[in-house]
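Deviations from the work plan: none for this task. Representative record:
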Amino acid sequence: MAAMLKKQKILLLFAHPAQERSEVNIHLYNAAKKVEHVTTVDLYHEYPAHHIDVDKEQQRLREHDVIIFQFPLYWYSTPAILKDWQDLVLEYQFAYGKGGTALKGKIFLCALTAGGSESAYCSGGYNHYTLRELLRPLEQTANFCHMRFIAPFALFGARTAVEEDLLTQHIEDWKKLLNALSEQRLDLEQAAQLTRVNENLDALIQETV
Amino acid sequence: MTSYFIQAFIYLCAAVIAVPIAKRLGLGSVLGYLIAGVIIGPITGIVGSETATIQHFAEFGVVMMLFLVGLELEPRMLWGMRHRLIGLGGLQVGITTLLVFGANVGFGLDWRIALTIGLIFSLSSTAIVLQTFNEKGLTKRDGGRAAFSVLLFQDIAVIPMLALIPLLALPDLVTSIETVATSAEHHEEINLVAHLPNWAYGLVIVLAITAVIIGGRYLCHPLFRIVAKTGLREIFTATTLMLVIGIAALMSLVGLSPALGTFLAGVVLANSEFRHELESDLEPFKGLLLGLFFITVGAGIDFSIIWKNLSLVLSLTLGLMVAKSVVLFALGSLFKLKGADRWLFTLSLAQAGEFGFVLLSFTIQHHALPMDLAQLLSPVVAFSMFLTPALFILFDQVIVRRYEKQKIDREADAIDEEGPVIIAGIGRFGQIVNRLLVANGVKTVVLDHSVSMVDTLKKINIKSFYGDATRPDLIHTAGIEQAKLLVVAIDDRHRTNDLVKYVKQTHPGVKILARAYDRAHAYELQNAKADSIIVETYYSALEAGAEALRQLQFHPFKVEQLKRVFVATEKERHDTLFNTWREAEGENRFGSNYVQLFLELEKALAEAMKKDRDAGHSRSERGWTPPPKQYQGELD
């Protein structure tokens, strides 16, 4: 039955202001370009002066079922252009408020990399909060816009991921997740509960029949 | 006079027919000229003994070629490739020479002859190989680059070879020929140094070389400047020819090789801002004379000797190519060329080259090889060149395929090897473009037709070349084939348009960024298919407008938004305006239709700045707009 479902279209909004120094994100982004049903947008490439085209971005949102922000975590939040993007694109009467239902029912998630180790992101660690807790502004934004927020696809300790040889596995997981999302094989209920969606990715994905 | 016309016509005719056919068949122009010579010479017998006289004249093409080789030798470039140039090139020439030398001595030849042949056979064909690399896009491959350094080394190595070969003259050959020749030809050669004692001779040589170097360094520059300022192109060409011929004459007078002298002069001028202009002036002369030279070589081939020794010639050819390949393959492995690149390196350089012919005719003149042996070796060089296209086909069809399969699909490099950016016109506009590019490590070639501008820029360390960039041959020598981008920043709008059209036609792969004088010019450039067009005053005027708004106490951040809306609205209407302009005829292109549309644009601009959108906000304020005051009531 799963194979009969309509393919979900994924919009990947990538925000990285220093791509020439990127060790993880750029590879994830390039890998996503090759996945079917994924539209990739490099925001800093398209809007180098932050002059975001609101109409164009809103139209893109309307045409997709899954919205992903991909970024390296900057001060527990997104790089500046993604904040600009939210401030400009998620307009009254488009994303919220009277008649603002353009995003209703769409799935929203963050794919991000964090410099600190997973143990740093907890009440006892030096970051004091879990990643999921730190992403609450985004979670609430998604809720406010009637979207379904699911746990982030996160890589901790990203500064040394290449040296520790974590990249290959992470890219494989990433492709698996994107495919599962477009084929509607991801268990969204469970995915909404976790701290990060790639804690145990295989358990969340149904095999195709 | 009539007979000269007829002869010239026969030679040109043969070249015009044979060269395009040879190129079409992938044989390259050198082989085309050779075939032309074979057809008008030994096969049909249209031309005869006068070819020898013409050959002496055509050898001047070689002298020019070495001047151009010298001109290409920028010290910085040479330094960058020194390891491969000296290591790979030196070993290739050295080992191949030794191998051939050894084999010849084994055959029982005199050691001087053996060494001469070794030198001749160690060279490969720059003309065929580089042309094929360009045609097949192999220049950027590692194997192609390695081959290039070897070819460059060989071109330079010709100079010492020309000096060495007279020393290898065979004494008995010299005396036997001289006794015949002295009485007949004695008056022909003028030589200032023939009767000087050895120490004075040495002194004269040192003086002559010093004169070339110092003259090239300190006299040529002011001379070319004065001539360039006249703006008469033919006088510039005349000056160039005068220089090359003068040096050749000087060298002959003191008994040195003219090729050596002009090569030196070329090296001295390699850093000059007139380099590209010199190159494009000499290129046609050199090409024609070299062509003529190869025709005479073809015409001079004695088929009776080849037929008599056919199996010997063929086995020598094959033996030579196998020996050269083995040396090349081994060196390729030693210098860590991998896979297909090692094969490219091996196969592309396995032939003997056009310098082989030059050296052969030189050896005959200097009695270093007996005539009949040279007659036998000349077809070996030619045959190995004939086989080269076949080797390239082997590379394309068999080797590349075999290795491409093994190649893992890796991500394309973000920035691959950049071709240079050519900047035509280095006035107020071009300077800023150039400075930004150079500051970011982009290689630029800058051209300007004003000598005083080139001089001024020299003072602030911007390297530029004198020359009119709208001339096809100059844009060609500046390297348009390899260029990624051409920036056209010259003042004359018609010439700008012509240049854009020409480059788009001949090199559609090169992106063009053009500076437009005004809106109409921008349309003309768009019509000419320029890729990016910047109207020279647009952004500075826009910035001035923004500054005016800031002076009027508009908030600077707000001003940025207004500026953006202005640009975006203009952009939206651009195509409509352009099409109206294009469809209108002649002088009336800014007629009533256009004016109407322009007025509409102005209205749209005002609206975009002011008019409220559905949600009650002006477009410029659309960003960062709070929801209406009553919005909380709408939320559940």
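Strands of chain B lie at 421-424, 444-448, 465-466, 485-488, 511-516, 532-535.
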